[in-house]
Amino acid sequence: MKPKVAFFDFAGCEGDQLQIANLEEDFLKLVDIVEVVSFREIMKEHSDDYDIAFIEGSCVRSEDEERLEQIRNNAKIVVALGACATIGGINSLRNYQNLDQVLKTVYGDKAEWISAYKARPIDAVIKVDAYVHGCPIDRDEFLHVVKSLVLGKKPEIPTYPVCVECKKNENICAFERGEFCVGPVTRAGCNSCCVNQGTICWGCRGLVDNPNQDAHTEVLEKYGLTVDEVVNKFRLYFGWQEGAE
Amino acid sequence: MNTIDIHYVTRVEGHGDILVAITNGKVEKCRWNIPEAPRFFEAMVVGRKWNEVHHIVSRICGICSIGHTLTSLKATEAAMAIPISEQDILLRKLALHAENMQSHLLHLGYLVLPDLLGTGSVIPLTKSYPDELKTVIRLHRLANTLSDMLCGRTTHPQRLIPGGFSRIPAMDELKIFKKRLYNSFSDLETLVDLFQEVVNTFPDFSRETEFIALTSPDEYTLYDGIIGSTDTESAPVTEYLSFTNEYIVPRSTAKWTKHVRDSCMVGALARLNINYENLSSRAREVAALFNLKPVCHNPFMNNIAQLVEVVHSVEDSIKLIGEIEASGLNPIPDYNRPVIEVKAGQGVGAVEVPRGILFHDYTYNQEGVCTAANFVIPTNQNHANIQGDLEEFVPQLVDKPKKEIELAIEMLVRAYDPCISCSTHCVEVHL
Fold first, then answer.
1. Which of A63, A121, A157, B76 stands 20 to 30 A from A140 (CA)?
2. What whole-number distance in Å separates Cα of residue B270 and Cα of residue B276?
3. Count of domains for chain B
4. pLDDT at A69 exceeding the cut of 60
């Protein structure tokens, strides 16, 4: 029997679920190996009977916790899909600002109508079994994770930094070009796609496990960067991981 | 009492609810609510530097991330008077066509077609209409390939940066792509035929409203232009606030807007109503097949206007690549960073994204740090019109079975192609 799969979204841009439509012909193969039972963005039907739940987006208000707990109860496996769900992502930028002030300046005298707390990744609320990193997710990595889970295996994801892939791709190092890049401490698996396109690594896949702080400090010292510059860049995606609580 | 409570309308981007209550054939309640989680992007960009803002705001919307990025870049470039080359403008226009095609095809093929073919989602169509679905997928792939070639990738583009591009495609890539665009006309015909067969499934409903879109005398514009309206004189984009007039309503994390009437509509139908004369020849032929001409007040025809625009985007992309070919492509350095003189200033950017006119407005200090931001999102400009349509449409449905009423009003909301995650963070910030 095909495993039953459901997709859910919280605070995010739905760009990760879009990557599933962007599988194009592979989408047809995907629905051959799994049975999609709930996916609000593309289907009317809904069922609470599913084996694997994919969750996109961050949790940004307490009332969403109940929905997350229901999903956790219904699913055998919970997968966080994309940076907002895996690490809090870009949403945690505002965690460094005063929340009352943020609410007031965005919603003015109607601020009290709006409920929100600090943006957090899904595993800050419920247990998460697997992660598909990135902003947006990589379509091949998504398929790899789905195949692994369908086969009952734990999906393997890289535990080395983006620099490894960047060197393999023979990019000119962003630091050599006079720019600041968080590739040295960011989890690989994207094939250094942003640097390949002529920019920098912004850190969307989150901190690598056991980041080599000494090596990174060395790089920062070598290129004369200030703590403020570094912290500012880290906060784009690492806000929750760095302990914005 | 007959109550219809559609908690989370399906097959739309983001979370919207419809609540309808009918007693003895009388509509007691009829409400469009937006319970989407709030996101606060206007606050999030405050304190960030000029060369990061476009990267952050791309994350407002996965589907129209190229549009948000370009609107952001235009606002930043306006604030600091950063020049853009003619070549980069042509390439940016191509990128907008790519996104317009991708988004419209996703909406028409994956979200709207199931209503017209009587299924709950696109998944059963993989078995019942495999050839038609493969046609949609081929066209969708074509659009995404064009995005990849210009922007690095389709969702959250990498190459679009202040002052231009970090990388551009080679002329050969563009030429090969032009051929692929020519070869797509037969697929487009298949899609048009399919919609002609089922177009009568759309309810016959019209309500007079105001349409707003960018307009330009020379082209069916997505990238440049001034603000046009079917009700009033045009105005430069710097006067956008007089067209948007945002307000907050209860039960909605999104802001609503209005201009001279209680509501207005933006998107493909608005563009077609205002800029019909500048559509490409094939696109106008397709519009004629559906008897679609300005000013059309039937919101369901927004779907058909999207179909017309897909054809226009293909034809205009061929023309734009031809222009680049004629003038020759100037290569740019690897890891290109246009030299920019950072300065204090305020700037507004406006772009037509798939769902309508989008505004970004930034203020920067001397260090190029953003101190204030305002975004007005297309779907916000449509919320009041959706509510207005529901109030007039639902009374026409009261004698129908509950299931039919439910389907009809869902189809109405879906016709707007609402992008709700976009629309839930849409106000001014002054810190």
1. A121
2. 10
3. 1
4. yes
Is residue A120 within 8 angstroms of chain B, CB to CB?
no
Provide φ and ψ at A120, rounded to 5°.
Answer: -145, 155
User: For residue range B171-218, what is the model confidence (pLDDT) as tens digits?
Assistant: 999 999 999 999 999 999 999 999 999 999 999 999 999 999 999 999
Domains in chain A, please, with CATH?
4-150 (3.40.50.700), 162-234 (no CATH)
Q: Are strands B255-256 and B247-248 parallel, antiparallel or unpaired?
A: antiparallel
Q: What pLDDT, in 10s, does the model give residues A178-219?
A: 998 999 999 999 999 999 999 999 999 999 988 777 777 777
Angle (CA) A84 A88 A94, round 5°: 110
Q: Say yes or no for a CB contact (<8 Å) between A108 and B248.
A: yes
What range does the domain containing B396 cover? 2-430
Cβ–Cβ below 8 Å for B161 and A61: no
In this structure, what CATH number is given to the domain that contains residue B358?
Answer: 1.10.645.10
Rounded Cα distance, B77 and B80, in Å: 5
> In this structure, how many other beta carbons lie within 10 angstroms of the beta carbon of residue A177?
15
Nearest-angstrom CA–CA distance, B325 and B319: 10
Beta strands in B113-239 (DSSP E): 160-161, 164-165, 210-215, 226-229
ipTM: 0.95
Asked whether the beta carbons of A216 and A185 are under 8 A apart, the reply is yes
In one-letter notation, the amino acid at residue A111 is A
Q: Rounded to whole angstroms, how far apart are CA atoms B276 and B293?
A: 7
Give the integer Cα–Cα distance in Å for B1 and B110: 34
Inter-chain touch B155–A113, beta carbons under 8 Å: no
Angle formed at CA B65 by CA B63 and CA B68, multiple of 5 degrees: 125
What separation in angstroms does the CA of A12 have from each of A7, A51, B57, B58? 13, 23, 12, 11
Paired tokens of B103: 């988004």
Phi, psi of B162, rounded to the nearest 5 degrees: -55, 130
In the structure encoding, which two tokens stand for residue B316, read together?
């205009």
Q: Which of residues 66-105 of A touch B (CB under 8 A)?
A: 89-91, 93-94, 97, 101-102, 105
